[in-house]
Amino acid sequence: MKLLTWSLLLVSPVASLVQDVPSINAAIPYVPWTEGMKRKPSDFNHPGLWHSHNDIEVMRNGVLKGLDPWKSGYEQFTNSSFSQSSYQMKGPYAVIP
């Protein structure tokens, strides 16, 4: 019974420590928090990405519910030759045509 009690106490903190760390990375060393730092990896917003996680969830839910403009945009995207897994890049060219 004691083991079960300790196990239940540790499950939540362990899950919260692990859930935000990408599994492909090694252990992240502890660095004391200072002003301006992010508190967890998901707080980082990549400057080259235009959409936040919430933006993508709104799009995803719109597609799943069949709502426009998300549904029609997704259909255009999936039918585009540029979004196919068989797409082959042309170039780079020495001279841009």
Distance between the termini: 74 Å
- Output mean pLDDT: 77
Number of helices: 3
Beta strand %: under 5%
Kindly state the number of beta strands.
0
Word description of this protein:
The protein has 97 residues and is mostly helical. The chain has a domain at 53-83. The chain is 41% helix and 0% strand. The protein contains 3 helices and no strands. It has helices at 2-18, 53-65, 70-79. The longest helix is centred in the N-terminal third of the chain and has 17 residues, at 2-18. It is extended, with a radius of gyration of 22 Å. The termini are far apart. The model has no long low-confidence stretch (mean pLDDT 77). Keywords: Signal. This is Tyrosinase copper-binding domain-containing protein. Residues 1-16 form the signal peptide.
Which SSEs are present, and which pair or pack?
Elements: H1 2-18, H2 53-65, H3 70-79
Helix pairs in contact: 2-3
Short description:
Residues 1-16 form the signal peptide. The chain is mainly alpha-helical and 97 residues long.
Keyword list:
97 residues
